[in-house]
Every structure is written in structure tokens, then in C-alpha cells.
Design a protein that fits this description.
Blueprint lengths: L2 H8 L29 E7 L4 E4 L4 H6 L6 E7 L4 H10 L4 H8 L6 E4 L4 E11 L4 E11 L4 E5 L7 H8 L10 H36 L3 H33 L7 H66 L8 H4 L3 H22 L4
Parallel strand pairs: 3-7
Antiparallel strand pairs: 1-2, 1-3, 4-5, 5-6, 6-7
Length: 363
């Protein structure tokens, strides 16, 4: 199998530059992704009776527009304009190291309790159908006493169902504060993980059918590509489980007991997802073992066939070698029917060996 071809096949995303932050001072707002999306800031305010949404607002006006009697949600999309995001960070008192984590899209999921606010960063996963791979985007949430700020890499429509739900006057979410809103956003992200699991299920079923019906070298490439996507999924979800468990059980004043129960539900979902991921790992390992066993059996079959053919031709080659030594006195060479007699001997030997091997079920 061509190793270079496999590497080209499974390398479906742009190569990351992990050393981009090397030598840079701490707290530097340096985007570690491939290409930053244009920055836009919006604001949503609501209570049980009213809902207001503003798009493309001035970043300096976000903090000044907070209302204590309403739920305040500031949305930030895109990291191209670092000055805009830095302004929001200063207004809301975000620690410079946490601002750095917002821009570092390779950061593992984590939750930090800074007393005055909770900082949450995790990955939003979407399945790219044409490329058959996971598209991971970082989402960061800043939950304070009277505000929630969300930071997204691009203009993702991920939270649009949440916004539509909040627009409904009969929605229970309208009567809750920012901690419940943070739960809604986290729950939406985790629900998307199930969509990824469904795609993994379809991919594994397809590979199993190909492996049993039409085994080929291309299957090994597809299995390796799927295994790489599974690594991305594990790296995203495993750390998040423990972080969600911490905020679900720790008595943070920013999350009330009502919302904490819903956080426990997210934790249960993550446990189920992790168990499913472990099952996929075992299935992929089993498929790799089966593929290697099939290749070994195929190689053994080829070697067996070549050995049987060689066994038939070895005595024939021996006899042909004797009569090809060009000795002067070989009586058979002067016999009129010597050539035909030797062909007959060859045929008898070959036929006899074939019958013997067939009787022994060697092929």
C-alpha cells in the first residue's frame, strides 16, 4: 500500500501551525485558525414580556446597554477585528489570559470559575458531508451576574434555534436568566454531537459492508480517515465531560439550583456519547484487524497457489534438465518416439500430482 497516498487521503483539513504562538507574550490576541472571519457584535435582551434583538452594534455600547431587569446576551462572531473584541474584554473585565484562550482555537474544552464570572470554552462540531469529515469551530461563553457573552469563530447559525425559541412568548426560557441561557447554548452544542455520531454510524456500516463484500486497499484508507475523525471527537468531548460535571456539582453563585439540574442532564448526555465513542473505537479496531486478517489470508492463498504450481513443475524441470545436459551417449535421444514418450511422462507426473493434491484438499 502506498503510504504517501494514504497520508494525502486522510489529510482533509488545512495543516495547522501549532508553533504560531511560540515566543509570543502571554495575553496576546493571536488567532490560531486558518483565516479569521469578519467580526460582528450583536445584542439580545428579553424578559417574560419583551424580546429585543440588535445586530452590528458598537462594541463599546454593549456593556453600557446592560439592563438588570432583563436577560442580556451579547453575541460576537468572527475574530478578524481584534480591537473590537479587546474592547469587549476590557468592558466586561475578562482576564487577558482568557482572552488569549478565546483566540486559541486549538485549546481543549475547559471551564474556569473567576468568582465574578464563569469562562467556558468548547468546540462546536458539524459534519461536512462532501468531505466526510468533522468541521470543528470554537465557541466561548462568558457568564456573569447580569450578562452572557458568546464568542464564535464565524457567523454560525448554530444558535438560531435558541433565538427562535426565545422569540416565542410562551417559552419557559424567557422567564429564566443568563445561567439558563448558557445551558440552552451548551445543550444545543452537545445535541449536535449526536448528529456526528449518526454520521459515524453510517460510515462504519458502509465500511463493514465493503469490508465483507469487496475488500480492497481503499478500505484501509477510509478506515484511517474515519479513525482520525474519531480522534477529533474524543479530544473534544472527553475533557468537556469533566468540566460540565464540575459546574453541575459545584455550587457556583452564578448558576442556581434549577439550572444545575439541567447541567446534570448535559453531563448524562456526554457520558452516553463517550460510551458510544468507545464502541466506535472497538468497531474500527475490529475492522482493521479483519482487514489485516483478510490481507494475510489472501497472501497465504497466493503463496499456496504458487507453491502448488512450483511443486508440479519441479519434477518436470528435473527431467527436462537431465535431457538438456547434452551428453553424447543418451539412448533416448536416438529413439524415434523419445520426444513424445517424454511428453507423456510429463503429463502423467503432472496429472498424478494434481490428483494427489486434489484428494488431499490442498486446493
Amino acid at each position: 500500500m502506498n503510504t504517501r497516498h494514504i497520508q494525502q487521503h486522510i489529510r482533509t483539513s488545512p495543516k495547522k501551525k501549532y508553533s504560531r504562538k511560540s515566543g509570543q507574550p502571554p495575553g496576546l490576541l493571536l488567532y490560531t485558525g486558518s483565516e479569521p472571519f469578519p467580526t460582528s457584535v450583536g445584542m439580545i435582551q428579553y424578559d417574560e414580556d419583551e424580546f429585543h434583538e440588535k445586530k452590528n452594534i458598537d462594541p463599546s455600547a454593549a456593556f453600557q446597554s446592560l439592563k438588570s431587569d432583563k436577560t442580556n446576551w451579547i453575541t460576537v462572531h468572527g475574530f478578524r477585528d481584534t480591537e473590537t473584541i479587546e474592547t469587549i474584554g476590557k468592558d466586561f473585565g475578562i482576564h487577558p489570559l482568557l482572552m488569549e484562550d478565546i483566540f486559541n482555537v486549538e485549546h481543549l474544552p475547559k471551564i474556569e470559575d473567576m468568582d465574578d464570572y464563569l469562562f467556558i470554552t468548547l468546540k462546536s462540531l458539524v459534519w461536512d458531508m462532501p468531505k466526510k469529515q468533522i468541521d470543528a469551530k470554537q465557541v466561548s461563553l462568558l457568564l456573569g451576574k447580569n450578562f452572557l457573552v458568546s464568542f464564535c469563530e464565524d457567523d454560525t447559525p448554530l444558535f438560531e434555534p435558541v433565538v427562535e425559541r426565545l422569540k416565542t412568548t410562551k417559552s419557559r426560557a424567557r422567564s429564566r436568566k443568563e445561567d439558563y441561557l448558557s445551558y440552552l447554548l451548551l445543550d444545543k452544542i452537545v445535541d449536535n454531537y449526536y448528529v456526528i455520531l449518526d454520521q459515524f454510524d453510517d460510515q462504519t456500516d458502509e465500511l463493514e459492508d465493503l469490508l465483507l463484500d469487496k475488500p480492497s486497499n481503499e478500505i484501509a484508507q477510509k478506515i484511517l480517515a474515519l479513525k482520525k475523525q474519531l480522534v477529533i471527537l474524543r479530544r473534544t468531548i472527553y475533557p468537556l465531560k469533566e468540566e460540565i460535571r464540575s459546574i453541575a456539582h459545584d455550587e457556583s453563585p452564578l448558576i442556581n439550583s434549577f439550572t444545575r439540574q439541567y447541567m446534570n442532564d448535559i453531563y448524562d448526555h456526554l457520558i452516553h456519547i463517550i460510551q458510544t465513542i468507545d464502541n466506535f473505537r472497538e468497531m474500527i479496531s475490529a475492522m482493521m484487524d479483519l482487514l489485516m486478517a483478510n490481507n494475510a489470508n489472501r497472501m497465504n492463498s497466493i503463496m499456496k497457489t504458487l507453491t502448488l504450481i512450483s511443486s508440479v513443475f519441479i519434477p518436470l524441470t528435473f527431467l527436462a534438465g537431465i535431457y538438456g545436459m547434452n551428453f553424447r551417449y543418451m539412448p533416448e535421444l536416438e529413439w524415434r518416439y523419445g520426444y513424445f514418450a517424454l511428453l507423456g511422462v510429463f503429463s502423467l507426473i503432472a496429472g498424478g500430482m494434481y490428483y494427489y493434491m486434489k484428494k488431499k484438499n490442498w486446493f
